[in-house]
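Quick illustration, no need to memorize.
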Amino acid sequence: MALTALIILLLLIQYMVFSALTGRARVKFDIRAPDCAGHPSFERIYRVQMNTLEHLIVVIPALWICGLFFNPYWVGPLLGLVFFVARTLYAVGYVKNPKSRGLGMLLGSIASGALVLMGIYATVMEMLYV
């Protein structure tokens, strides 16, 4: 479970970096809270942060569940790393040109979907055979 926990912490650090980038963009483009609109570059950086937050609420519990029921050194951490790389690709692509975020979004969605489905499978199997 330590590797699963480490991947989750890595995802949280990534989110913290995205949050810091949003804060820096607020200053750079003079977007004062609570405003969330203004300069298009700010809006893209902000959307990266918010979209990542929206996905983490699914990925973190699913990753933890997979770590509980599957080999904690293989399934969950591997998919967690795929999600991490996908979010990085998504962020870089979205900030440069929103139309180029597709690959990162696709890979992240596949990883998070796989984590959820595998978590459901493992939980049901555990309930049936206990």
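The radius of gyration is 17 Å.
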